[in-house]
From TrEMBL:
Descriptive protein name: DUF4919 domain-containing protein
Domain of life the protein comes from: Bacteria
InterPro entries on file: DUF4919 (IPR032578)
Amino acid sequence: MTKIALLLIMLIARIFPLLGQSMDKISIPKFNDKYSSYVKQLEAGQTSIDYLDFRYSFIESEQFILASKKFKDHNKLRNQIISEMTNKEYNNVIRTAKAMLTINYTNIFAHKVLRQTYKIIGDSVNASKYYKIHFGLLNSIIKNDDGKTCSTAWPVIQLDEEYFILQMIGAKLLQQSTDTTDGLCDKMDVDTEDGEKRTYFFETSKIFEGYRKLGMK
């Protein structure tokens, strides 16, 4: 084997691991704002933050505008990850979930997937990290109030959060409407797993703030 061929083999051997590492890594937004700072903290394992403020900071960040432009890509990644989970392609699941979080780090579904997947493959450190972020985000919504009226509605910043919570509690959506009697809310009439009909309210002022920022409302 010539020296040139040997050098090429050594170079390729070094490049491929680096490519793999980049695929597994969440890109921290480069903006000098609160959202970017929060993402950097969380990825470093500093999970004791104000998650409600973190979620609100996403709407205020320039990353929110970039994420809106990648909405279709984000949905494609979500569909992809479901297929990878079904096929137990755990390395691909992790890569896809992190690609989702690079776009929108407040996505609760992606953090839940990482928590579950790292637990399956025996990575207790990352499983613990994403467990804390997953439930930090979730509790910043449902721990604020009971969601039974518009005045005690659960505060959301994106529609995905509404459907994630309904799925989490095993509720099947029957009808969605808007309630403005005491704020700005989505009113969700649902069937529960025990066969009861209930109504949950989500406070949506931040969603419309986001729409205005994008010039949609």
